[in-house]
């Protein structure tokens, strides 16, 4: 079968348009504070633009790597991610800001390892799940036989997922529960595609939900943040702990259908993070519902395109990489927008391609480069070969039997 080895043009154009919108949004949201310091160029823009250009070059370079070679570095991707997350706790490298250790400082350069951990987790799980054969649980005679043929083998098969949960725990301890939740959700989506039995998926899903609830209510500050979020409009909270969210909500309401106009918004003058976590508030205020829907539509189109390419991929590894990236972008988009409109409490989740931040821009562009690599190596199959890319019926025979019976 002849394959067309070229990247996906639509994916590249969508990502580029979103990055350009991000540069313009960062300038718009940050110029007011820059002008107060005698400059029309926001400090965030001076770091974001070079980082984005570097990120696009990295994506282009990564897209040229054969996906077979990428699949061989699965465990290396895990170990590099683990090392990066551990370095934030090293005195002199990791620096605590506002009670959190999430960054590594090397001279004037700051790096957030949890962003690159998302890339590492996707590569690692895709490589391990793609090479793991389907397993039919054997019949056992007694407890010893069950331990030997079922329990031990089940534990070995679960090691990659347990390793990922170790990374998630490290991110949560930094503390960064929001990013940890994004990584966990991405991993779970990949397990769903990666031929894991429906019974195990239900078990992992319930365990994950319970763990999220435990960590969300473990720290006193998290409980307080949740409680105060629902009471953010009270006189006691509106100018203190509820300030960011209420100001963002006011910005969206002020924008109406078409917005107050470019550079005419007030949210960027009051919000403490106008170019990063709450950048969508300025977009909503100055360009209204119409402008907001355009940005959401572009991000949604990119996610849909990734899922469409995953459906066309002839390799399970390629499908896993594409689905993992789609869930990463989609979950962060939903979380950031829901945070801005008051559905969720404030959290450190950037809007993909739009929010300022060199590390997040580099990480997500590298991941898109990997997606282009698997697309270029996978092509659009005209027929299924082997069992590398099983259908849902092949991956979940017990599920297929249940839904097929009338």
Assembly of the depicted chains? single chain
SS-derived structural category = mainly alpha
Our estimate of the beta-strand percent is under 5%
Number of helices: 16
Largest sheet: 3 strands, antiparallel
Overall strand count: 3
What order do the SSEs take from the amino end to the carboxyl end, as H and E? Answer: HHHHEEEHHHHHHHHHHHH
Topology diagram in text:
Elements lengths: L8 H28 L6 H21 L3 H5 L2 H14 L6 E4 L2 E7 L2 E3 L1 H18 L12 H30 L4 H17 L4 H19 L3 H11 L12 H13 L11 H4 L8 H34 L3 H25 L17 H21 L13 H4 L1 H8 L2
Antiparallel strand pairs: 1-2, 2-3
Defining key terms:
single chain; 406 residues; mainly alpha; 3-stranded antiparallel β-sheet; 16 helices
Overview of the structural elements:
With 406 residues, the protein is mainly α. It has a domain at 17-73 and 121-133 and 175-379. Helices cover 67% and strands 3% of the residues. It has 16 helices and 3 strands. Strands 1-2-3 form a 3-stranded antiparallel sheet, with helices on one face. Strand 2 and strand 3 (109-111) form a beta hairpin. The radius of gyration is 23 Å and the shape is globular. Residues 379-406 have low confidence and may be disordered.
In short:
With 406 residues, this protein is mainly alpha-helical. Helices cover 67% and strands 3% of the residues.
């Amino acid at each position: 079968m002849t394959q067309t080895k070229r990247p996906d043009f639509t994916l590249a154009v969508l990502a580029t348009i979103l990055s350009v919108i991000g540069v313009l949004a960062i300038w718009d949201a940050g110029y007011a504070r820059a002008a107060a310091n005698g400059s029309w160029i926001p400090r965030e823009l001076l770091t974001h633009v070079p980082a984005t250009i570097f990120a696009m070059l990295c994506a282009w370079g990564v897209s040229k790597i054969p996906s077979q070679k990428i699949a061989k570095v699965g465990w290396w991707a895990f170990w590099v991610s683990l090392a990066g997350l551990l370095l934030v706790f090293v005195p002199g490298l990791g620096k605590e800001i506002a009670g959190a250790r999430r960054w590594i400082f090397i001279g004037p350069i700051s790096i957030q390892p949890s962003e690159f951990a998302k890339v590492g987790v996707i590569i690692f799980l895709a490589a391990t799940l793609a090479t793991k054969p389907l397993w039919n649980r054997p019949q056992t005679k007694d407890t010893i036989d069950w331990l030997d043929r079922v329990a031990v083998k089940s534990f070995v098969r679960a090691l990659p997922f347990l390793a990922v949960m170790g990374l998630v725990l490290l991110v949560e301890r930094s503390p960064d529960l929001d990013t940890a939740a994004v990584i966990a959700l991405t991993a779970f989506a990949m397990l769903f595609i990666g031929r894991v039995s429906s019974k195990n998926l239900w078990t992992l899903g319930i365990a994950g939900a319970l763990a999220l609830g435990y960590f969300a209510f473990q720290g006193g500050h998290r409980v307080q943040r949740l409680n105060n979020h629902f009471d953010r409009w009270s006189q006691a909270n509106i100018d203190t702990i509820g300030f960011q969210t209420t100001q963002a909500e006011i910005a969206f309401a002020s924008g109406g259908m078409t917005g107050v106009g470019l550079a005419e918004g007030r949210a960027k003058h009051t919000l403490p993070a106008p170019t990063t976590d709450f950048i969508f508030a300025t977009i909503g205020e100055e360009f209204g519902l119409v402008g907001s829907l355009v940005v959401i539509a572009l991000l949604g189109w990119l996610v849909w395109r990734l899922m469409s390419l995953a459906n066309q991929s002839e390799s399970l590894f390629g499908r896993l990489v594409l689905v993992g990236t789609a869930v990463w972008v989609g979950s962060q988009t939903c979380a950031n927008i829901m945070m801005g409109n008051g559905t969720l409490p404030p959290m450190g989740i950037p809007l993909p391609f739009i929010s300022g931040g060199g590390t997040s821009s580099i990480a997500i562009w590298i991941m898109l480069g990997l997606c282009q690599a698997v697309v270029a190596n996978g092509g659009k199959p005209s027929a299924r070969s082997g069992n590398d890319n099983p259908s849902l019926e092949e991956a979940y025979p017990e599920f297929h039997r249940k839904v097929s019976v009338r």
